[in-house]
Design brief:
TIM Barrel; globular; alpha/beta; disordered C terminus; 8-stranded parallel β-sheet; homotetramer
Chain lengths: 365, 365, 365, 365
């Protein structure tokens, strides 16, 4: 696809990906758990947060940079870990890594990536964080060492999915993983616990496990999938280098709050002791701005990058991330924010939205 | 129907039953009183209760069991009493009883069952509670004795329907009870009061009647159809062995609150002095979890079991109950609840949902 | 139309009238001012008021009777004044009067009736109240005397419409009054003020005019069209025998609150010193019950009676009023109200409705 | 178009303009930034503000006049500055000026007008305010002097748009400015800053710039595009002759509050020290009344005038303004407001609207 033929907005990428992918794959990518209330809520919660701009503000020229776990980044938009990217494009995680790096966006490689750790790392210098699931102490540590050996700089432990979610949309569409797809980086490691409720719960990780991992792992560990402020504080006390407020993109348990609804209490509980990231429903530069206003240090975007990957490979990924970064800058300029220091809770206007102003937006999607 | 052809979710059963039943029967089964605001509200109220999960929680392995009026049950999902099940399947209440028992679900036989008490009791060991309407002191006691003689363990007196509801959907669809259908277990007993407003109200049961029945009946009596906390407390003071928070599935008076909206105040008023059950709008394992979080000891499901009965008889009933039980366990696992002891009001996230995130769900149904 | 062919619910009458009337006449009857937000709000406000029923309550047998300005009525449902009923049926106000009287419903004849005062009065004994607009002191008093001479028992002065409303629905449908239609009871009297804003406002009635009329008129005067509690109190202080909380059926100024939203403060301000009536959006027996719970002594229904008149003349009017009365009794029975003494504010359950449960109802209409 | 063929309501003008304009031009005119949430919110916020009318009020005859920056105006409805009116009608800003003046409405000429300052001024005596963007101190002052030389009486500095908004609707429709269209009044002046985020922010005006302009300019300066009360107070402290509460018609940054939502705090912060205007979503006389009730001294309408221009040139503009003025007078009459002195915050009824009463309105548009 030539650059001039690329979709013009993130929403256009969503539509183009829906048209380009096989229906079952699109159902897998776009669907959520249960009746998809949380899936919709992730986006609707941003719609419902109006921004109160300031005008004529003094201060320096525009700046979106930040330091995250010791690394300087141009902007606070990261690519979230996503499984099975080869379903979307033959270049898979390599294209994600290249596109993200081209636009200064850190990428978190999924434990269920279809590309070897080192190969993804080599495809883009900013593909340097790795997400993993609990595989028991031994398995988890072995996987962490693989990531460290491949040059990754941090680990992101997913703590919100002791069992897989049920996603009727993909079930009805007949989605199934192709037999030739496997989590190549997990070869030789134990599989996550399955079986009866009792067995799953007996094998699920506990606070002591997180504490142990933070001490034993060769890299800093962020905890991903936290919504409760008490859990966030406890994770940091256990040694976590940061937390990710997330409901797993609405894919695991339907009925959870939007992640941005849970964000303020988490940010308040941590009070700057460790970085707070958030993902789920971020589709616009204004959503990034809202998340920062409510206490996030950075955000992760998932599906937008996946839509772009499906539509135009690495070029699309770079384009979508550029759109989001540009939208963030435009939003900051109009809202009167010259740098992250100008962004805080007072940027959110507190009033119930009038009925009907949001619904049409949701219906159009 | 072969097991592999069964619908995959409760929602799929709803659709399949709608397609399988004659339109007038479907209107009778799925419709509600008046404009069906309460019918929709029963479901929408669950949608609007987000769950706040906890991660990495310590504790034992997973457990959903409970003791209810002295009986140990594997899980807190009961089958609600429903009239005229022969309209849905030739095996009627026998299939309900067998399917429920197969999945460890207690069943409450309806006073308007189309199957004799003993025959239903024999079809499934967990079909051991019996629901009845007020028929005057003599009639009600006679019916209670029939249930005791047939081996039932408890009675559930419906107190919320002194007159029949008006259901325009079934009226417009031309629904009428077939002439060969009758409440076989009421043979020879007086009919409920009918006639003028004055006559109906004069014959309606009063608190003294409940107190009398609790003392006179050979079995413990639960009061079904209570929404007000003061009424719940008075019922227990009158000797009731438990209460069921219910608006009769939205079938009697339109404009009532959702039963789950009324639940917290009732649970708070009883403070554990007697078990609290709730029915109305429970369609998912997460709905069961929400009800438990808001103070219910157990829940009753009606239409989901009826849809399953219509689609696949006893096998369908067992399947739907299994789906709900599995969904409950998955929800507990992801929410960090290893047993009912971990489930309480703090599991509900208190914030108004953003507009638009729930509507689409309702529209899809 | 034979009785067995009559529509079965008020909603069915609405639909049948929509089909039976010429489109422009239906637009006039069913439309409202402006964008019809108040028109919809009148109905939606009732939908949003859940009823909290009580069970097993002691007390006498059922009773809906009341005394209103000294007259005993079987029930609290009146027929509201409505203009130009000959547009709907050749028997016009005579059919309304006959149908209303047959069901024990007091009727308020409109100043813009197409039937002479005495003729309507003769068609039904309960057609004994008369509504009038301000025509200047001399004109208004002359009209009041005409009503007294024709045997009417009370006057209802409309105070909320100093100018006519703008109703785009009927404008777009090309509605115009037929040339042979005239307000026969106003013959020879001055017309209401028209012309410039300044002229209209100069001629509009003021508090001193109401006080004068209450003293000078040969009959008690109720003030119709009050939403503000201070205005209600002042009207009674000026001598009004009662007030009608009303927004004129949403036909005069769009953007007003629903009348039932304004009711509680008015009832509270009057504290029983004079009867409070309410109209606007009452379509069900449960709506009557809600209005009584919020402080109304009685309600007036307009469009439901008009739909019935259009569909089936006096028989239809009687039928719709019977449906509403029966629905009120059923609602009282199920809500545990044996008489108006059991009906109060605690009958309304205070909680925001979950999103989505009301919308479908509105969309269906 | 003959007068008798004109549309009958503002809404009808909206529809007629949508049919008359090329689709890309209609998308440019009617669209908004991003997902158009703010665009819809501007209108929905008015829908959600119910008016509490008073009856029988004493006082003088009707009056809507006001004094604004020393000029007596018949009514508080102004025409907002709008770019590129030649896209809508060949008579462009001259027709706007003539139509506005014919109905006593002050007009604010846009800096991006397609008509020379003096020519627009000559087409209508009430076209006497001029809107401008920041062009650096030298450029802005030069432009201000051009306006003063052409006989304009005041300047309105837009402070809310340091960068252009992104409007997907017009992008998708392929809208582009025709090459022969240019901002004729800006000839020879520097263009607004463009380029990188850093460059744009470095060139954006600051408080010191506003203070400087207010002192240096030959005309009083109003600040347009303020939503925050602190900014409004600071603007007046900096010498601004008034403020315009505005979100730029939802065209610059999506996600802002409705302007009428931000109005009360701004009016309260200024406490009458300087006039407050508001624009955005005003489509009805009742919207004007609501804005006045919440503290505005006057309102500006944009798109309604543009629709009218597109449909019927100067005649249409005059007609739409007459409709709005008449609607305002009718609304005042029915709400019991004889003059602006009767209009205050107590005119707004404070209660959440019931669900569903507003949605249908939005959907119809």
């Amino acid at each position: 696809m030539r650059p001039e033929d690329l979709p013009q907005t993130v929403e256009d990428y969503r539509r183009a990906a829906g048209a380009a992918l096989p229906p079952a794959t699109a159902a897998w990518l776009n669907g959520g758990a249960g009746d998809e209330i949380t899936l919709r809520r992730n986006e609707a919660a941003f719609d419902a947060l109006p921004l109160m701009p300031r005008v004529l503000r003094d201060g320096g020229s525009g700046d979106t940079s930040l330091t995250l776990l010791g690394t300087r980044l141009d902007h606070p938009i990261l690519v979230a870990p996503m499984a099975w990217q080869r379903l979307l494009h033959p270049d898979a995680e390599r294209a994600l890594a290249a596109g993200a790096t081209a636009q200064g966006a850190r990428m978190v490689l999924s434990a269920q990536a279809t590309t070897p750790l080192a190969e993804a790392r080599g495809a883009g210098a900013l593909c340097d964080w790795f997400q993993l699931y609990w595989l028991g102490r031994e398995g988890t540590l072995a996987l962490a060492r693989r990531a460290a050996d491949a040059g990754y700089a941090a680990l992101m432990l997913t703590v919100d999915a002791p069992v897989a979610g049920q996603r009727p949309r993909e079930m009805r569409a007949g989605f199934a993983l192709p037999p030739d797809l496997s989590p190549v980086n997990l070869a030789g490691l134990p599989r996550p616990a399955a079986g009866s409720f009792e067995e799953v719960m007996a094998a699920a990780p506990r606070w002591a496990d997180l504490e142990w991992l933070c001490a034993a792992a060769p890299l800093p560990v962020l905890a991903k999938g936290i919504l409760h402020p008490g859990d966030a504080a406890r994770a940091v006390a256990a040694g976590a280098a940061g937390v990710v407020v997330s409901n797993h993109g609405g894919r695991v348990l339907d009925g959870l709050p939007a992640s941005v609804e849970a964000l303020p209490a988490v940010a308040s509980a941590l009070a700057g002791r460790a970085p707070v990231l958030v993902d789920g429903g971020i589709r616009r530069g204004t959503d990034v701005l809202r998340a920062l206003a409510l206490g996030a240090d950075a955000v992760m975007v998932g599906r937008p990058a996946a839509w772009a990957l499906a539509v135009a490979g690495a070029l699309g990924v770079a384009h979508v991330l550029r759109l989001l970064r540009d939208e963030l800058r435009i939003a900051m300029a109009i809202a009167g924010c010259r740098s992250p220091r100008d962004i805080g809770p007072s940027l959110i206007f507190r009033q119930n939205p009038p009925e009907g102003c949001l619904t049409a937006s949701s219906q159009a999607k």
